[in-house]
Structures are given as structure tokens and as C-alpha cells.
Specification:
Length: about 250
């Protein structure tokens, strides 16, 4: 009998411990929702989403038209338009999630998806040269995107605005300009870096996909990750500042 009571006591104590551990996390989530729900009404948030939805549709149409009119390879055209398409689809997904729930805060995960895709577009727009009207469109959209991020207490997009002079938001040292080849330390796959003097960086992987980054002085920024760039014999070395991971690239 004593053993049975002891087991019940231990079980109750264990459950109480789980509740105690989980309570702060749950409380923080409730606190955020309470604070931001008072700060913004559902109508306020809906207005931001509607503006972004309309502008993303226009941007996608104009961007695809611009790329199709240029002498761009089929692979590059597909890759560039896919980045914008993914962003526009994420915005559409946010609209559906927002409309299906009276509590606008519950669409926060969809806003995170929008921010993830928007960063890909932002990297592309900051790394390549496009028509000024597209750059102006993206600059305006970025303001709406950052308003949305602020509303949901999420990190905002960086970047000052387009490449009116033809690419890059940085300034690459002369020894880092050109095309360099290295290996992904995790997968062993090939990586090619193409760097121009204005700091525009195109990263191409062995599966044919590409991403975009910027280099300013000895700092390379790619998807929010910063690496220090140093000169080595006939090449460059990137060293991540967060975990020290190094990749050597040769010409």
C-alpha cells in the first residue's frame, strides 16, 4: 500500500515539474500575443497584408516580363523567376491563413515563411542589376515587409535599396575579385564564387542552383551569415564568424 502511494506521489511530482518547465515558455508566447494584439488591430494587419499581396502580384508580373525580355539563359531565367514566385506564393499562403482565423497572431508562422522567401529576393535584388522601376518596386515592398515583420515581432529585412549603378552593396578588395572554386565542407560538393568589384557575389553549387551574397571589405554576408575573407595563395579563404568554419577557394 505504501509503495502504491509512493508511486502516485512520484508521478504527481513529475507532472508538476513538467508543468513548471513548460509554463514560462507558454507564458512568454501569451505575453507576446497580448502585447501585439493590443498594439495592432486585425484591421491594421489586414491592411498591411492586402497592400503586400497586391504589390507582390505586380512585382512578380513585371519581374518575369523583364527577365523574359533579356538575353538570359533558360536555367538562369528559371532560377530567378522561381525566387520571386516562391515569395509571391508565400504571401498568398499568408493571406489564406489570415482570412481563416479570427486571431491574426496565429498566422505568425506564415509570416515567418514570407520573411524567409523575402530574404532570398532581397539578396538577389542587392546582388544583381535590374531595371530601376523594379528596384523602386522592391524598395517600397521591403517597407511593407518590414512593417509586417514588426507587427509579428520578427526580424526585419536589411539592405538599403537597389543597385542603381549595376550591382552590389559593398566594395570587394581587388584580390577578391574574380571567380573562385572550393568545396562544401559538409557535403564535399563543388562551390563557385563569382565576385565583382562592387561587392556582388554569385554562389553556384554543383547541382546548378545559385544564391547571392555581398562582400564589403573583408566581410562576406550570405543569408544573414557573416564570414571573414582573407587572401591566400592564388585564392581566398572564408571563415564564418559564428562557428569558425573555413572554406578555401582557388582561381
Amino acid at each position: 500500500m505504501k509503495s502504491k502511494k509512493l508511486n502516485i506521489f512520484v508521478l504527481a511530482f513529475f507532472c508538476l515539474g513538467l508543468i513548471t518547465v513548460a509554463l514560462p515558455v507558454f507564458s512568454f508566447a501569451q505575453d507576446d500575443e497580448a502585447v501585439y494584439s493590443r498594439r495592432y488591430s486585425r484591421r491594421d494587419v489586414g491592411t498591411i497584408i492586402t497592400s503586400l499581396e497586391q504589390s507582390s502580384d505586380t512585382f512578380r508580373r513585371d519581374f518575369n516580363s523583364y527577365v523574359n525580355e533579356r538575353s538570359v539563359s533558360r536555367n538562369d531565367r528559371s532560377r530567378l523567376t522561381r525566387i520571386v514566385d516562391n515569395f509571391e506564393q508565400a504571401v498568398d499562403g499568408l493571406r489564406r491563413a489570415f482570412d481563416s482565423n479570427d486571431n491574426w497572431w496565429r498566422s505568425r508562422r506564415n509570416v515567418q515563411s514570407v520573411m524567409d522567401e523575402a530574404r532570398q529576393v532581397n539578396n538577389m535584388m542587392n546582388s544583381l542589376s535590374f531595371a530601376r522601376r523594379l528596384e523602386r518596386q522592391w524598395n517600397q515592398m521591403r517597407r511593407d515587409i518590414n512593417r509586417l515583420a514588426e507587427t509579428y515581432n520578427l526580424p526585419q529585412l536589411g539592405g538599403g535599396g537597389g543597385n542603381n549603378n549595376g550591382g552590389g552593396n559593398g566594395n570587394a578588395p581587388s584580390w577578391a575579385v574574380g571567380t573562385f572554386y572550393g568545396r562544401n565542407p559538409q557535403t564535399g560538393g563543388a562551390i563557385a564564387l563569382n565576385i565583382n568589384s562592387r561587392g556582388s557575389v554569385t554562389i553556384t553549387f554543383d547541382n546548378g542552383s545559385s544564391e547571392y551574397a555581398t562582400i564589403n571589405g573583408d566581410r562576406l554576408t550570405h543569408n544573414g551569415i557573416v564570414s571573414r575573407v582573407t587572401r591566400i595563395n592564388n585564392g581566398i579563404r572564408t571563415t564564418r564568424v559564428d562557428n569558425g568554419e573555413r572554406i578555401d577557394y582557388r582561381r
